[in-house]
Amino acid sequence: MKTTQSQTHDRRPAFKDAWTPGDLVQFEALVSACALVAQSDGRVTPEETRRVTEHVRTLPALDVFESGDLIEAFEARIEDFNRDPEAALVMSEGTIRRLRDKPDAARLVASAACAVASADGGFDAEERAAMLSNSALLVLSP
Fold first, then answer.
1. Of 7, 23, 35, 41, which is least surrounded by CB within 10 A?
2. What letter does residue 59 receive in the DSSP assignment?
3. Which DSSP symbol is given to 19?
4. What is the pTM of this model?
5. CB under 8 Å to 129, separation ≥6 — which residues?
6. Coil, strand or helix: which one is 118?
7. What is the pLDDT of residues 14-40, one digit of tens each?
8. How far apart are CA 30 and CA 98, in angstroms?
9. Residue 1 confidence class, pLDDT cut points 50, 70, 90
10. Per-domain residue ranges for the chain?
11. What is the predicted pLDDT for the residue at 10?
12. What are the phi and psi torsion angles at 93 (to 5°)?
């Protein structure tokens, strides 16, 4: 039986439909949610940064954004957390909250943050708490 394009299951168009290329709100929410989860245990080791970088480069959901830009922004946000954790938290939560009226993009942000949480091979209590916080900010059911 020959399969037509409409019968094949390709998730990439759904990703493209949810993301808007060049949308700074989506980009910042994505970076903030990932950084919030990555630093949830209080620090981001160079090994964690390397694993997150690998995830960013390979997640199909993120290919609408330039991976180099995402990585650079992620590293800058982690530096914000290292310098002033309280200010970085307030800024990150604000940028995440701005995406709550775009549920498809919000779900992709949450999914990417989950991938970051699991980048170290586990999903600990701090990462779970950060994901619950992200879900609340995005008005998503955990």
1. 7
2. -
3. -
4. 0.81
5. 40
6. helix
7. 555 667 767 889 889 989 998 999 888
8. 11
9. very low
10. 23-138
11. 44
12. -60, -40
